[in-house]
Amino acid sequence: MIGKLTGRVDYRTSDHLLIDVRGVGYLVYCSERTMMTLPGVGEPVALYTDMVVREDLMQLYGFTSLVEKEWHRLLTSVQGVGAKVSLAILGTLGPDGVSRAIALGDWGSVKAAKGVGPKTAQRIVLDLKDKAPGLMAMGGSLPDAMEGPDLDAVVEPVEAAAAAPKPARKSAAKKPSGAAAASAGALSALGNLGYSPADAASAVAEAAGDNPEADEAALIRAALRLLAPKG
């Protein structure tokens, strides 16, 4: 299985490109949105890939991030959704847009992609609605293909935090659980989608106040509704 390619762009069209990896050319199909972000001919490129193998076909699909690749995997797991439809959805909405649409049950946004009918859009939302919050929460920690995480940038703040004096507490610190854990997870997911800490905290607090028993997925959906543009 080919999971990632790093090489140079040999040529490119509207929906695929040829990547030269040490003299071997790999034909990779991408969404329209992804194609717009890729470099020109002769320039270096790196893509995460998913390979489809059938009796009459062996084809590679490329993604600039692991989040995009994971959404492609989930979308194509839905009955009636093939790679072409998945790329159309990702090209129209992007990974973050897919996360929001499915978390909110907004099948109308999914239907806006070329080749997606209302029944298919509704099936996608129904089948994947429980998967969206987890993927949204993971989004900020998954690297782009061209550059992995900077270990120094991760380790140094952690070491500094560990070395910093801790305020005295009457009892040992415990990991958040229950409602606190759900709110923390929802805040993280909203932050990964680009919402400011203040807006995210306000929406999560309001959502939690309306439904104190809500789990993380329910809080994310409710907060997204509160943050959605009005009118």
UniProtKB/TrEMBL annotation:
SMART domains: HhH1. Residues 1-64 are annotated as: Domain I. Keywords: Cytoplasm, DNA damage, DNA recombination, DNA repair, DNA-binding. It comes from the Bacteria. Pfam families: HHH_5, RuvA_C, RuvA_N. Residues 182-231 are annotated as: Domain III. It is found in: Cytoplasm. Residues 73-92, 108-127 form the Helix-hairpin-helix DNA-binding motif class domain. Coiled coil: none annotated. The RuvA-RuvB-RuvC complex processes Holliday junction (HJ) DNA during genetic recombination and DNA repair, while the RuvA-RuvB complex plays an important role in the rescue of blocked DNA replication forks via replication fork reversal (RFR). RuvA specifically binds to HJ cruciform DNA, conferring on it an open structure. The RuvB hexamer acts as an ATP-dependent pump, pulling dsDNA into and through the RuvAB complex. HJ branch migration allows RuvC to scan DNA until it finds its consensus sequence, where it cleaves and resolves the cruciform DNA. Has three domains with a flexible linker between the domains II and III and assumes an 'L' shape. Domain III is highly mobile and contacts RuvB. Belongs to the RuvA family. NCBIfam families: ruvA (TIGR00084). Homotetramer. Forms an RuvA(8)-RuvB(12)-Holliday junction (HJ) complex. HJ DNA is sandwiched between 2 RuvA tetramers; dsDNA enters through RuvA and exits via RuvB. An RuvB hexamer assembles on each DNA strand where it exits the tetramer. Each RuvB hexamer is contacted by two RuvA subunits (via domain III) on 2 adjacent RuvB subunits; this complex drives branch migration. In the full resolvosome a probable DNA-RuvA(4)-RuvB(12)-RuvC(2) complex forms which resolves the HJ. This is Holliday junction branch migration complex subunit RuvA.
